[in-house]
Structures are given as structure tokens and as C-alpha cells.
Amino acid sequence: MKFISQACAAALLSLAPLVAASCDYVGGNYYCSETDAVIYQNVGYSGSYQDVTSMDESSCSCSQESVSFEGSMSPLNEELSVHFRGPLELLQFGVYYPSSGNSLKKREDCDVATRHHDHKRDVAVAIVHVTSTMYVDGNGDPVASTNPSATAIYTTSSTLAPASTTTSATADDEASTSVSSSAAASSEGSSSSASVSSGSSASTSSSSASTSSTSSSGTGSGWNRVSYYTPGSANNLTFMNHQGGTAGSGTWSSCFGNSISYCAADGVSGAGSPQALDQVTVPSNKEYMIFSGVKCSDTSSGSCGYYRDDIPAYHGFGGDTKMFVFEFSMPHDDSSSYNGDMPAIWMLNAKIPRTLQYGNSDCSCWGTGCGELDLFEILSSGSEKLITHLHDGQGDNGNSQGGGGTQDYFERPTSGTLKAAVIFDGSDQTLHVVKVDGDFSSTLSASTVNKWLKESASVANLS
């Protein structure tokens, strides 16, 4: 589904020796260093995408109109749905927002608890700086877009991969690490990525990272949990899948196939009403998704825009600043089917599944860049390396396969579970995907969230 332009491919080839020196090429994808966190910087831009306005069953066609957006985190500040593909067992999921009436604080002003830890932990972090499209001349040197010899190449990210370092971060003792510059591409998998990191020296890349904003996602009185799931219990969220027309919800047509539907407790079947997922391991190539518990008919929460007729339509999770937490396992299975043993967790602009997630590209906004964020994705069958990548038009000349990513990876939790937080910080345009520990209680203090950020950011000298 993701493509690499010829110009991008040429750039990747020119950097191949750098990749080969520090990364492994497996199953069509590069994998570099294991990481505990990925921080996306400079997220959000001004652009537009084609939004669906109608779906015509008689002609099997869809109409679209242009929708413009701008600002911090855009278009990922729009409502998002959260998607899961097996083999996967979900143990916890939650959504948090900052407590109302509190402004975001600078990391250096945070509670002292965020600066002093009495434990040690191996931490590695990858930094992805999402940039605008770069133009080069015939020699590969940067030029203005108006230059007659200019060619657009999608050098969309600069990736820093500090070595895993045992740290005990305090105000007086920040961790220091070595930093390596890498370049990589992936051309396989349902959500594979094409990214080029800086070909300059590590010191140049490090300088770019160190000049970023240092504001923190923690607020003065913390974060409130608005939606939460544990097996058998779902509070203010709705499980769905793609079984429309089979079990009392959603619809089916020869034009557009099965719509979304309520998901049964087994995670695989459809249902006629909302159900909480049981403690189940969903098998390979089976998917479900999570929306909020608020129906689109509740206009007090804003408009969902156009969505397919006769579906259970719910709002997603919007906002510049928000946090998602997960606890999950991804055990191996022996499936040889399409997407066999390739689990994934990702986010989509919630408009996409409410129209057509798979099928005619004119029937969703996905192809024109309304937003996808791959959080934890296996790119080849049986792999134990989870990749993250942002897909929208930023940095890729309007191509939805752009954005940025890293070939550093999280270790797949095949036994036991992985806990993680995904933190959108609209105040400084950063997006953090971070392994965490501790409980996901109904409220989280600013010091707790800032500790999660601090443990990773300090390794890259961002604190």
C-alpha cells in the first residue's frame, strides 16, 4: 500500500552503505536498533485532503470535496480511531486528556519528581524530525523549488538512534549517549514506510534535535481518563469491526462490501449492539477497532462529517493534546494466510472507516493524506520487531505515504505484555510513543507522565 518514488529510491541507494553498516535488511525492510521510545518532532502542517461527501450505490462511485487544515499536530488533531490486527491480545486500553483549565508546562518547570528517579532502566530513543519536502539539483545539492533543475525528494525525517544506556536521570546528572545517523526504507507489508534520514554527520543531526522545544505534555494537575477498557468491561468506548450486514448492525453492498459494525466479544464476529471485548487472542488477519462511546448523532461533540448510510457511527478521539495507553501481547501463531503472524496497532482519521477503509480510494480520505499513524506494526510474517511510522502529506509533497518514521524498533511482546503510552503534545508539536510501567489509573499526575517522557528524552539530551 505504500510506495517509494524513484527519486526517493535513488537517495536510498546512495545511502545504502551507511544503512548496511548499522542496520539489518530482513524481509524487504531495514531494522536498526531496539528502542524504548520514538519521538516525532515538528508534527503538523497546512494542507488539504479530499473528503467524501457521498457514496452512490447505483454507480458504485463516491464524491469528494477538498478540506483544508492547519496548525499543530494537523491532521492528526482530528478525530482518530484506533485499530488492532491479530495475533494480538489486548489487556488494557485508555484515553486521557489534560485536566481542564491548566496550561502545558515547560519541562524545566515540572515537579521535581520528574527529575529525580531512584531506579535505573535501560532506555533508548529514536528522534524523527518531520520536515517539508526537500528539492535537490542534479548533483543532489539542496536548491529552491523554483530552480529549473529542482527535483523533489522525500527526505522526510532525520533519525537519531542513541545507544541503549542505563540512566538515573536527575537535575544535575543527565544521561549522555552516543548518537548514530541512519537511513532506511521498507517496501513490504500492509503499512510499510519509505523514509530517508539525514545523510549528514551524527553531530549535525544531534544539533537539530537539541534545538527543539522542551515543553512537556504534563499539566499542573495531571491527566483525566475519559475512556477505558479491560477484558469484559468497556467505559465510554465502542468496539467495531468489518462485519456489517452479518449480525444485526451495519450494512453490505456489492459496491462497497461490508461496512463497519459492532464487534462481538470474541473480537471476530459482528454484533447487533455494543459489546465489551472478552480476554481473547484475535488470530492473524482479523481486525477490530475502537471509537469513543459518543454517537455521531450527538452533535454537541461536533460533526462527524459524511459517513456511510446504515452504519453504527461514533466519534473518534480528537484534539491537539491527548494520550492513549495500551497493554497488549502479540504471540506468534502458525498462520500462512495473508497478513499471517503480522500483528499491528495503528490509528486512522476516523472518517476513513466510517466510509470505506478498504476498497475504492475515492471513497475515503486516506489516499489524499487525512492521516494514519502506525504505532506498533510487524512488517513481515513472524518478525519480532515492531515499527512505527507517520503517514500524511507532510514532507511528501501531498502524498499520504509521507510523514516520517524510523527503522529503530520496539521488541514484540510474544510472551508477557508491553505497556505503552502515545502522547500527542500540541504545545510543541511532538508525538511520543513510549514504553512505560505503572498503573493506568483514572487520573495520572503530571509527574508520572513527565517521568515517562523524561526517561526517554534525557537520553537524547532533549531535556
Structure description:
Residues 36-98 form the Cell wall protein YJL171C/Tos1 N-terminal domain. It is an enzyme of class 3 (hydrolase). By secondary structure, this protein is mainly beta. It has one domain. It has helices at 6-14, 16-22, 202-210, 351-355, 446-457, and strands spanning 24-26, 29-31, 37-41, 47-56, 61-69, 80-85, 88-98, 104-106, 121-123, 125-129, 134-136, 151-153, 159-160, 165-167, 184-185, 194-195, 215-219, 223-230, 233-235, 237-241, 252-253, 257-258, 261-263, 270-271, 281-282, 287-292, 322-329, 344-349, 372-377, 385-391, 404-405, 410-411, 418-425, 430-435, 443-444. Strands 3, 7, 10, 13, 18, 19, 25, 27, 33, 34 and 35 form an 11-stranded mixed β-sheet that branches. Strands 6, 20, 23, 24, 26, 28, 29, 30, 31 and 32 form a 10-stranded antiparallel β-sheet that branches. The model is unreliable at 1-21, 101-123, 131-135, 152-219 and 459-463 (pLDDT under 50).
